[in-house]
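Below is how a single chain appears once it has passed through the pipeline. First comes the sequence as given, then the structure the pipeline wrote out for it. We keep one example in the README because the format questions we get most often are answered faster by looking than by reading.
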Amino acid sequence: MKKKLSICAAAIIALAMTGCEKTGTIEGEVCDAFTGKPLEMPTVGMDSTIYTTLSKKYEFNQELRKGKFKFTKVPVGSYRVYAGRSKYVKTRMRIETTEQNPNANIRLYIYNSQVEPGLYQGTPEGPLKISNQWVVYSTNCDESIVGYRLTMPLQVENATASLAEKIGVPQKKG
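Resulting structure:
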């Protein structure tokens, strides 16, 4: 009899503890990385949870039209929030909420996957590609180095040779 009573007591305590779990709201905005402007109808979610804007029960669809999202009644803890959109590269951000700060307001940036590889400058109109003739870069498995010239030297041949020597590019002989 005591064994059944202790099992019932443990079940009641477990139920009581789950009912006291602190929850909060995680909300934010998804913006274009180049323009900084909100993107209409992003897909947002939290890894390994039920929270996603794709859910039939998602109640803030009108806010998605403005690039905003909101998840309510989220238990405090550590999460990875992701954002994406058709023809955009998905991004992820780690956030943590606590009993003292159960709410989080974040901004996620994504960029268009149709952009060609290279260096870009953000402008209000969108990405402006920096011409490759002005860019010097070197990559290997351990590191990447990029330099941006503001002016072109007058003697291009000598400048190229000395730049190649500076960054350690072997010279062709013959």
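Residues 2-19 form the longest helix (18 residues).

See the next section for the split statistics.
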